[in-house]
Design goal:
alpha/beta, seven-stranded parallel β-sheet, single chain, 41% helix
């Protein structure tokens, strides 16, 4: 949920209601990370997490900039923004981000898109910081377990946002949550969290039944009161159905699931190959920001998972309380549906 939808207020509300709120800090400067962490601590005394991309995901600058720029130029003109320029930086410095989290003694660090180095893992362990990695295959889960993580998020193909795949091509790792979670649980000894398509208490109970210790939910909170999603993004989410998401590299150069829109369709028709990640993400940022400020969803990255039809609105606290009640009801309903011989 990095890049806008995630806010300190959302993180704190989830933690205050019994969950583990998580701040998506991938695109935040160290100064902004510190500001947000301070704000979270003003709002809650309970544990929370901060998520970063693994530096393993960063690739050297590569790709056909003139061709991509030629594709983007008329869109920039339509949005009344400057023509695209060659990216000069891949984004925030991971080492500086993680140094900030260590200094602030953030209780839980989660990562996606790869591993943390042995050196960083050793430092995090010395500080007694709890580390969660993200896997989209059993082999990735084993690599994470071997690296020393305390828990693993098994990210099913239904999940919104960037695919966490790092050991194989993302197109080969589109394994559904129902199939992935029990296989990961069987393969590793650390606790497993289930992610992907979980939107209500029924999904949480299903995750627990598969052996997960918890459910990780992102899309479920995209339209809550505390969400930083802009109005056009919210409108698109509320109107969307489960068959309107797609996995695309159009916005960042890396596979991610979001709502199909005009930009994705035009990109697909162009036959272009994106620049390397995260340089392509930097290149499309001006367009995406202009779309957000101009209430134009056709050029934004509208990350969302396949459970989108179950999206709800209201405060994060209200959603959390509803989830708690739904878990109780789902457990009772499942018990009632069991054949008498199994009760």
């Amino acid at each position: 949920m990095a890049g806008g939808p995630n806010t300190p207020e959302m993180v704190a509300a989830v933690s205050n209601t019994g969950g583990l709120g998580s701040l998506g800090a991938e695109y935040l400067s160290p100064a902004q990370i510190e500001k947000d962490v301070v704000r979270i601590r003003q709002l809650t005394q309970r544990p929370f997490a901060v998520n970063l991309f693994s530096p393993d995901a960063d690739q050297p600058l590569a790709g056909d900039f003139p061709a991509v720029a030629a594709f983007l130029r008329p869109i920039h003109e339509r949005l009344s923004i400057a023509p695209p320029e060659p990216p000069t930086s891949p984004g925030e410095n991971f080492d500086e981000q993680l140094e900030t989290l260590i200094r602030l003694q953030v209780p839980v660090i989660s990562s996606t898109l790869g591993l943390f180095s042995a050196e960083w893992m050793e430092r995090l362990k010395r500080k007694n910081m709890y580390v969660i990695g993200t896997a989209t295959t059993v082999d990735e889960a084993k690599l994470l377990a071997d690296s020393g993580v305390d828990a693993i998020t098994a990210q099913g193909s239904e999940a919104g946002g960037h695919r966490g795949t790092f050991a194989i091509d993302a197109d080969q790792a589109l394994i559904g949550t129902m199939a992935l979670v029990p296989q990961v649980v069987d393969a590793v000894k650390v606790p497993v969290l289930a992610a992907g398509g979980i939107m209500d208490g029924r999904g949480i109970v299903a995750a627990l039944s598969l052996g997960a210790v918890a459910a990780q939910m992102g899309t479920a909170f995209l339209a809550c009161d505390e969400s930083g999603a802009n109005p056009a993004y919210r409108e698109a989410l509320v109107a969307a159905h489960e068959d309107q998401t797609t996995v695309t590299r159009a916005f960042s150069g890396r596979a991610a699931r979001g709502l199909r829109n005009e930009f994705i369709d035009r990109w697909n028709q162009s036959g272009l190959t994106p620049m390397s990640f995260p340089w392509h993400n930097t290149l499309t940022r001006a367009m995406r920001r202009a779309g957000a400020s101009g209430k134009n969803s056709s050029v934004q990255s509208l990350w969302a998972g396949q459970g989108i039809r179950m999206l709800r609105q209201g405060s994060a606290t209200k959603i959390m309380n509803e989830l708690k009640q739904e878990v109780v009801e789902a457990l009772e309903a499942a018990r009632e549906r069991l054949p008498l011989a199994l009760q």
